[in-house]
Structures are given as structure tokens and as C-alpha cells.
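Retro notes, item 3 of 5
We never archived the inputs for the magnesium ion complex last cycle. Fixing that now. Sequence and ligand:
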Amino acid sequence: MMRGVAILGSTGSIGASALAVIARHPERFRVFALSGQRRLDVLIEQSWQFRPSAVVVPDVAAAQQIAARLPAATRVLVGVPGLEEIAADSRADTVVAAIVGAAGLLPSLAAARAGKRLLLANKEALVMAGRLFMAAVAAGGATLLPLDSEHNAIFQCLPAGPREAAGVRRLILSGSGGPFRTLAPEQFATITPEQACAHPTWRMGRKISVDSATMMNKGLELIEACWLFGVGEELIDIVIHPQSIVHSLVEYADGSVLAQLGNPDMRAPIAHALAWPERIDSGVARLNLAAIARLEFAAPDPQRFPALRLARAAAAAGGDVPAALNAANEEAVAAFLAGALPFTAIAAVVEDVLEGWSAAEPDSIAAVQASDERARALAAAAIRRCSEEG
Ligand code: NDP
Ligand code: MG
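Structure as it came back at the time:
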């Protein structure tokens, strides 16, 4: 069967990896639609290679800029309505949600409501609106397949049937610890964006690279796992594993622990989810354990990485607290990448916003967006205070 695929955020790191897997299997997948925000040249290149029926760009000006440079059969749509349209179009049965941050929420949700095979990389959507998002998946009859390597690993290690009956005791998320795992705490204040974006084992977009460096990424993944697998945060452990070979683990009642291993390359979880329940070639180099020789594990360091504590507290608090955490983090990371905030202030800004936060249970996406905006305003004020003091 030929699957039509829409890739939301095709010009990014996940988008490029998804296209690399698809290009190996032209008999299985047809690219129905692509989208980009700023890297329009990349979008044009991808369009000539994959000949999508539609592309989505941010606005009319961008559409006018690229229309004449695309294949004649490719329609150009704009903005969030364009993204929602390609996510729900019947010509795509598979949607890869690879937009970064809160901007991915509405398009990812449109795919869930339309009952797609939804390959989710956009973890921020689940962090912000987990309960409503999972309800939309259920109501739309969507099949939610995690692309995040840890969650994809857990998905592979879980039994197919009801989990409780199968005796699942704990989920264990692994994380590399990022580039500053062993950096002396007093050196954290002078970390630059370039240092933060140089991840030791993964090549990723800048926002998630900074999240990996603060370990907020592991915190967001903790919340993501709660929703994906329907468990409380107290049943999820985090373990540091610098080699990024063991992608995560599931512990069973009898003491057995199942893990998924592989080289750190996002094409593996993407190929898994694209073909699931079948298996296809991903292009990832085969794992050579003898050459790797050593796999190390350690507990995360709460002193270097306060973001982990903040995210766990947000997961435990529930309601709109994770949405506030996510929004504050996005603002702080953007300020750090712009050179306007020191690295150590990222977690401090998030903590500042959460300290004064009065939690509520959002009953609609509009309510989630209101919480998101409120948290961004508080974060902006905290960032201003930081730069005045600094
Ligand atoms: P990138 O920054 O590389 O790509 C993000 C994509 O989203 C690009 O196509 C970008 O367009 C688009 N985009 C950015 N802002 C907007 C916006 N406001 N509206 C619409 N589209 C937008 O990020 P990654 O690919 O690294 O990450 C994507 C998601 O996947 C994130 O949620 C991340 O947490 C998750 N993820 C990523 C992993 C990785 O290995 N990279 C691993 C696990 C999860 P353009 O580039 O044209 O501006
Ligand atoms: Mg991950």
C-alpha cells in the first residue's frame, strides 16, 4: 500500500531525516505535502526532489517569493490554516509532526482530530495540552506513534496489550546528559549558544539542542511520556547514558528490563514509525557493540540541571503548569540564543514563572493558549529583570 505523507516542518532536522528515509522507499511512500518557515530555499529543493501536491509557507509574502520557483503542480498554502489543511487532507494518511515548539500545537492537533497515523516529534504539543491532545487522538481515531527516540524505544519495549496486566513496573528514560554533563558548575554561567548547540551524540535543531544542554529536554520528555503511555511521573525514572546507544527501557514486575538499542540516528525511530508494524531499512549504520565496548549509566545531577526538578514538579502539578513551563522555557531559550540571557538564567526564568503561577485545568485549546501567553509575558518580564541586573 502506498502511504501519502505530510511533513509539518520538513525543512528542519527531523523533517530532513524523515525525507531521507522516505527517499529509500519510493514504492511505499509518496510525499503529499511539506512545510517550512524560514528556510525557503530548502523547501524549494525538497519540492523538486519529492514533488509534493502542496507546500505551506508562513505568509503571503513568502508564498509570492517562492511560487514561481516550485514545480507547477505544487500548490502553495499559507500559515496555520495551511498547516491544518495539509494535516487533515485525505491524500495524506500519515502526518509527521516536526515543527518545533508551541507553533506545532494546532497543526499536530489537526492531524490527531483527522484520525491520521500521527508520527509525533513535536513533544511541546503534548507537554502543553496533553489531556486535550490525547482526547483528540482518541476522538479522531488517530494512531499516535512517537518519534522522540526515547519514547519510540519505550513503545517498542512495551507489550501490545493492556500494560497493567502485562506487569509493567517502571519506564526508564535515558539521556546523554548533553554537552555539559561533566562541566564544572562554576563554568555554566559563561556557556555560549554555540557551545550549547554542539551536542555530543545527536545533530538537532537549535532549540532542542539548548534544551538538551539544560536537560529541560529530558524534563519535557518526562511529561511527554506521562501522556503517551498513561503513567504518572512517579513511575518514570531518568538515567544518564552518555553513549546514547540504549534509547530507553521498560521494567517489568519480575525484574526483567527490556531496552531498545541502536546508533544515535533519528532515521531509526522515524523508519520504525513510518512502517509500523512492519520494519524497513532506515539507512542507519548497524550497531557494533564490540567497537563501542562500553555503555555507562549514572544518576542525573540535580545541581547542574535544575530544569529536571522543575519539569518533574510541573508534571506532578498537572493542569496548565506544564504549558507554563514550556512557554517560559521557549522564551528563555530564545533569549539565550539571541545572546540576551546567560545559560544559567534559562532555568531561573522558568522557575520564576512557575513560582508565581496559579494553576488551572484548561478545558479547551483556547485556555491552553491563554496560559501559554500569560507565561510568556511573565517570562519576558523575568528576562528583562535579568538583563537589567546583569
Ligand atoms: P528544527 O529547528 O531543525 O526544525 C523545526 C521545523 O519547524 C523547521 O521546518 C522550521 O522551519 C519549522 N518551524 C519553526 N518555527 C515554525 C513556526 N512558527 N511555524 C511553522 N513552522 C515552524 O527542529 P528539530 O527538527 O530539531 O525539532 C523538531 C521537533 O522535533 C521539536 O519539537 C523537537 O523537540 C523534536 N525532536 C527533535 C529531535 C532531533 O533529533 N532533531 C529528536 C527528538 C525530538 P524553518 O527551518 O524553515 O524555519
Ligand atoms: Mg528525545
